[in-house]
Amino acid sequence: MNIDKIFENNKEWVNSKLELDKDYFKNLSEGQSPEVLYIGCSDSRVTAEELIGAQPGDIFVHRNIANMVPNTDLNVMSVIDYAVVHLGVKHVVVCGHYYCGGVKAAMASQDLGILNPWLRNIRDVYRTHQEELDAITDEEQRYRRLVELNVQQQCINVAKTAEVQRAYKKRGLKIHGWVFDIHSGHLIDLNVDFETILEGIMDIYRID
User: Cα(150)–Cα(98) distance, rounded to whole angstroms?
Assistant: First the structure.
């Protein structure tokens, strides 16, 4: 994108909104009440709002390399807290995508400097599921499967948080794991079972 054209694009976007609703920005400035927290990848090809047809105010978005939810990252932990406790979202979505550069990098045996501790989280997912992944002889299919397993693990990490556990008990908050297929443009629901996740981790991660 030509950086000099950004403000021109912005003016065109503003005008297009005002043509439909002269009070569009006045209404937008009055607050937000999204029902969905979307945690996705920072990849420039995967734009959260566009791929799900959302408008400003519809979803609360957090993006990072490979859609990770490590408990040591105060950024994502703060986003979850704000979205769940203060905005009262009804759904938390973790959305990965096939051909994710972060997942691909984690599969390689190389020193990537500052990225090493971040990618170690994905390598931990591989280690946990090594028997299944090593049994997949096709490298691309193994890569795609790790993308799916990483999404599932991040959903588990979301479920470990106190805010999410309280919201689930109080008002039935739901967690979803999706994958965006860049080749087709379609979203794939991994059918993550939130209740099964909780049953599997509550003995250790329960926060009363």
Answer: 11
Helix segments in the chain, DSSP class H:
6-20, 24-28, 48-52, 74-81, 101-107, 116-128, 130-134, 139-159, 162-171, 194-205
Q: Where are the domains of the chain?
A: 1-30, 32-205
- The answer to whether residue 161 scores a pLDDT higher than 70 is yes
At residue 130, the pLDDT reads 95
Catalytic residues: 41, 43, 45, 97, 100
pLDDT digit string, tens, across residues 50-66 = 989 998 899 999 999 99
- Are 95 and 38 in contact by the 8 Å Cβ rule? The answer is yes
Mean pLDDT across the chain? 92
Contacts of 199 (CB under 8 A, 6+ apart): none
CATH 3.40.50.720 fits 32-205, yes or no: no
Q: pTM, whole model, 2 decimals?
A: 0.92
